[in-house]
Design goal:
The complex is a heterodimer of chains A (305) and B (621).
Chain A lengths: L12 H21 L3 E2 L1 H4 L1 E8 L5 H10 L6 E5 L1 E9 L6 H11 L5 E9 L1 H29 L2 H25 L2 E2 L1 H31 L5 H33 L5 H20 L1 H7 L4 H4 L3 H9 L2
Parallel strand pairs in A: 1-6
Antiparallel strand pairs in A: 2-4, 2-5, 3-4
Helix pairs in contact in A: 1-6, 5-6, 6-7, 6-9, 6-10, 7-8, 7-9, 8-9, 9-10
Chain B lengths: L6 H18 L7 E8 L8 H13 L4 E6 L3 E6 L5 H12 L3 E8 L4 H4 L7 E2 L1 H4 L1 E8 L1 H22 L5 E3 L7 E5 L2 H14 L3 E8 L2 E8 L1 H26 L5 E5 L3 E7 L4 H9 L1 E8 L10 E4 L9 E4 L4 E2 L3 E8 L5 E7 L1 H12 L5 E20 L2 E21 L7 E4 L5 H12 L7 E9 L1 H54 L3 E2 L1 H30 L4 H33 L2 H33 L10
Helix pairs in contact in B: 1-12, 2-3, 6-8, 12-13, 12-15, 13-14, 13-15, 14-15
The chains are: A alpha+beta (305), B alpha+beta (621).
Chain lengths: 305, 621
């Protein structure tokens, strides 16, 4: 890229707006219809992880459990073919042993009970409330900070971009039917962090250019700002994604969903820092006057040698 | 001069790095799997002979031993292989007998010069080390009710003493106690006497067809005080019980208003742990009712494991188990098991007052046990009838001893007539561990097997190493010399993060590892911001020195804004989150702070050292 060649990002702003709206609406629709596959942390119940000494026959496990009277059990592979994850309703502390006894009866090899968790649903409810509360509180504080450091239009832009990223990340989880547990919640919250980071870097440059560039329309200034930060945006996303891909493939099953949430979040966050936050600024008719420093500071600056 | 740091700045960086390196170092020494032996009773001393006995049992079981040492109140035997740990525990437990607590442990191997500096390895969360996690909920309603019961008997005693005649009436729905009087005057007199004597009670008077009533319950401030007391008392009790289990580095913490978290790393036998923790037992000392006592002032209880006719006791409680300061099981003159009990001073006074005038009467020890249960209830949720499991408890009240008072009792006395040695020592253990102020039940339980924990660590570290390596290669290729600086800073960032977490004794969890990975990804951002700005300034025609200066300067504002907002999110996560979310928030916020230092200050120092103050034709970036 040469220094004076400006990419016309905002040329596609209407298209991007339409795409964003479609994605957000689609996500909301999926969330309304499919909901989220809330994990044990939220629903309560018992999770049993078993290690088989050879590849496990999931259908047989389901049949064995069904005929032994374990209702609504979910049986799935976990990592490798020898690891099995079973989710059951109920919170009998001996459930793990009972499941092993049941399955061992119809299996000649060794079954290893690796993990048992029972969690009360009440806890889940509380955590859901706390998580939701945490998100709202974080959003409010972030808005206040940006409004003070930048300007309220930037605060609205950043928060809309955030909501956009979070809703789409949740939407993808809903569409894929991936279990949503506490670690995924942590991931979604850090998507907020990442998306903010990205949006602020871009906003920072827009602010700087509005003050520095004497000529040019709003769209031209924003295009210039996005072009200048584009290299950095791509490199940072790339390095973060590299680490996340490593986490996804090598981090083990327990952080699979976590890595997935972050991968989606970082992808969407990168797009939104270019097309959502800046777009919102234009929709709100940002002007140079919005960003001029207060008169008093200007005077001081003029007096400086 | 452009791009020159004063000497003190370099010094500061070097000092920070050296300190960081020292505190990160202990993490390179892996823990030894080991077995810890301690006595079930304080009277049992652990000495060299104990170690020799344990060592002998290991030799017999053919388990190699690495080292053994005598600690203050316990013995520690280090093993060479973690696979041997369970077998070793069983062998030693067999050899030592039931009087000793034999527990699995992981003993640190930090060299002495490091631990003398206060350095130690990071703690690993349960998801990494394996172990059990319990969440207990304290039944506050019950705590309040128990206290109200004591007031109830005191109020009645007062009214009898004042010759204010009352009739008993059933408790109100909200738990308030109710008394009925024949006329208004007596009732009002009773109200004023009770109000004078018991300022903690909220009294309400009213009139109904049957007569004149007063009801009393605890004031709101009193209720809150009781709740606070109950959770504190239960915390202490749980801590004591956990200590009796002999677990190394247990975690017992209050969570929220009425919950207690217990984490026992290394423990796999959940049944045993639950048996000790979940035993919400309490004692009450009460006098046996006299034959002519009014039915309303007595209660009848069965004997524990003994089919005698049930005992009729007074409703009044002399003292309850929370006054017990120590209890030991041993044998009486005839070789029968007994429990020697010591009371605290106010308990001793109460006991003395009650027994002084009642020599010759019999006193009962009532054992109250709350067993956790789950009942199934049909509830309506969103218009649908759903079967919901409601955790609760069943209360069993049984007389464990009914003995004639030989003489006035004081702060120390004994309970005899117990069924066996086992029962005596268990009763002593429960008494010694302290009674619970209110019953608790298990809301949550998680177990992570040790092999799964090991897998988690291995995969977690693998993914960090791979992701980290990818980033290092990319940065080196893309930014050349500057990439090298960034890579050094990134490595320091990771080391400092480990050091800081060790210093703060923060616990590393699986999401915590994820937090570290994310930090690595995002710490790069600060350097990318700076370097791309330098590149840009070079393109704008600035000289190399000027471009470096401007690049750092301009990027700093952006980095600050971006990091402060992320930090805000992390801090809120820490404040509202629990468990895994908290672990993630800790590593993320520490990571952000450290990356501000390494990515800005440390790389600047390296850039200044290599390029500062020189004539540069062009910059390799």
């Amino acid at each position: 890229m040469s220094a004076n060649k400006v990419i016309n990002f905002m040329g596609a702003r209407m298209l991007a707006a339409a795409l964003s709206i479609a994605l957000v609406l689609g996500s909301i629709a999926s969330l309304a219809v499919n909901g989220l596959q809330f994990g044990l942390d939220f629903t309560g119940g018992t999770l049993v992880e078993l290690g088989y000494d050879r590849a496990a026959d999931l259908q047989k496990i389901r049949d064995d459990l069904g005929s032994a009277g374990f209702k609504d059990s979910v049986v799935q592979d976990y990592g490798s073919a020898t690891d099995v994850l079973i989710r059951l309703t109920g919170d009998d502390p001996k459930l793990g042993d009972k499941v092993v006894d049941t399955l061992q009866a119809g299996y000649s090899g060794q079954i290893d009970l690796r993990r048992v968790e029972f969690v009360g649903p009440q806890v889940g409810e509380e955590l859901r409330e706390q998580g939701g509360l945490g998100m709202l509180l974080a959003l409010a504080l972030v808005m206040v900070y940006i409004a003070i450091r930048f300007q309220y239009k930037f605060a609205i832009g950043a928060v809309v971009a955030l909501a956009h990223d979070v809703i789409i990340t949740l939407g993808v989880f809903s569409i894929l039917g991936v279990g949503f547990d506490l670690t995924v919640l942590a991931a979604v919250l850090s998507v907020i962090g990442y998306s903010l980071n990205d949006t602020i870097v871009v906003s920072d440059r827009i602010r700087e250019n509005f003050r520095k560039m004497r000529k040019g329309t709003e769209i031209e200034i924003i295009n210039a700002s996005l072009t200048q930060t584009f290299g950095r945006t791509i490199i940072t996303s790339l390095t973060t994604i590299m680490v996340l891909v490593a986490l996804f493939y090598f981090g083990g099953e327990m952080i699979h969903a976590f890595a997935l949430a972050l991968l989606i979040g970082v992808g969407v966050g990168t797009y939104s820092s270019i097309y959502v936050a800046a777009n919102i600024l234009l929709f709100m008719d940002i002007t140079r006057e919005d960003l001029l420093p207060p008169q008093k500071e200007e005077d001081e600056a003029d007096q400086m040698p | 001069m452009l791009n020159k740091y004063p000497f003190w700045k370099y010094l500061l960086i070097v000092v920070a790095l050296v300190v960081g390196a020292i505190y990160a170092l202990p993490n390179l020494y892996p823990d030894d799997p080991s077995i810890q032996i301690s006595g079930l009773r304080t009277s049992l001393t652990i000495d060299q002979r104990t170690i020799e006995r344990a060592e002998k049992s290991l030799v017999e079981a053919n388990i190699p031993l690495k080292a053994s040492e005598l600690l203050e109140k316990s013995a520690l035997l280090r093993l060479t292989d973690i696979e041997d740990q369970l077998a070793a525990k069983e062998a030693i437990q067999r050899a030592m007998g039931d009087d000793y607590v034999v527990a699995l442990n992981l003993a640190p191997t930090t060299p002495e010069w490091l631990s003398s500096l206060g350095a130690g390895p990071m703690k690993l969360g349960l998801d990494l080390s394996g172990g059990v996690h319990f969440l207990l909920e304290v039944d506050m309603q019950r705590a309040v009710d128990t206290r109200l019961k004591v007031y109830n008997s005191e109020v009645r005693t007062l009214l009898r003493k004042e010759r204010l005649r009352y009739r008993s009436a059933p408790d109100l729905d909200n738990g308030a106690r109710q008394l009925m009087f024949a006329d208004e005057q007596t009732r009002d007199e009773a109200v004023s006497r009770i109000a004078d004597e018991f300022q903690e009670l909220a009294i309400n008077s009213y009139e109904e067809a049957e007569g004149f009533f007063l009801s009393f319950t605890l004031k709101e401030t009193q209720v809150r005080e009781i709740e606070d007391y109950a959770i504190k008392q239960n915390l202490t009790t749980v801590r004591n019980r956990v200590n009796e289990l002999g677990v190394s580095e247990p975690l017992v913490q209050r969570q929220g208003r009425n919950r207690i978290v217990v984490q026992l790393p290394g423990v796999q036998d959940t049944a045993e742990a639950k048996r000790i923790l979940g035993k919400t037992a309490n004692l009450e000392f009460r006098l046996e009712a006299t034959a002519d006592a009014a039915a309303s002032s007595t209660e009848t209880f069965p004997f524990k494991e003994n089919r005698q006719a049930p005992a009729r006791l007074e409703r009044n409680i002399i003292i309850s188990g929370d006054r017990v300061s120590n209890a030991q099981s041993n044998f009486d003159e005839n070789g029968r098991p007994q429990v020697n009990i010591r009371l605290d001073s106010s308990g001793g006074q109460l006991m003395n007052r009650a027994t002084r005038d009642n020599v010759g009467r019999r006193m009962a020890v009532l054992f109250i046990e709350q067993k956790p249960t789950t009942r199934i209830e049909t509830q309506e949720v969103n218009g649908e009838k759903v079967q919901v499991r409601v955790p609760g408890f069943r209360e069993e009240r049984e007389v464990i001893s009914l003995a004639t008072i030989q003489s006035a009792l004081g702060t120390s006395f004994r309970i005899t007539g117990l069924d066996g040695v086992g029962e005596a020592s268990e009763l002593a253990l429960l008494l010694r561990a302290g009674a619970l102020a209110a019953p608790m039940y298990f809301v949550e339980e998680r177990t992570v097997g040790p092999s799964l924990g090991k897998d988690n660590i291995r995969m977690g570290i693998n993914s960090v190493v791979i992701g980290f390596a990818l980033v290092l290669i990319f940065m080196l290729v893309y930014y050349k010399v500057f990439g090298l600086f960034a890579n050094i800073a990134l490595t320091l960032n990771l080391a400092l993060l480990v050091a800081l977490m060790s210093m703060l004794s923060a616990t590393l969890t699986l999401p915590g590892i994820a937090g570290i990975v994310l930090t690595v990804g995002m710490a790069v951002d600060a350097n990318v911001l700076i370097f791309s700005r330098i590149k840009e300034e070079l393109k704008n025609g600035l000289s190399a020195q000027r471009a470096i200066h401007e690049g750092y300067d301009r990027a700093f504002v952006t980095i600050l804004d971006a990091n402060i907002t992320t930090l805000l999110v992390a801090v809120i996560l820490y404040a509202v989150g629990t468990g895994p979310v908290k672990g993630f928030a800790v590593t993320l916020s520490l990571g952000i702070i450290i990356s501000m230092f390494t990515a800005i200050v440390v790389t600047r120092a390296m850039v200044n050292l290599s390029f500062g103050g020189r004539q540069l034709k062009r910059l390799w970036i």
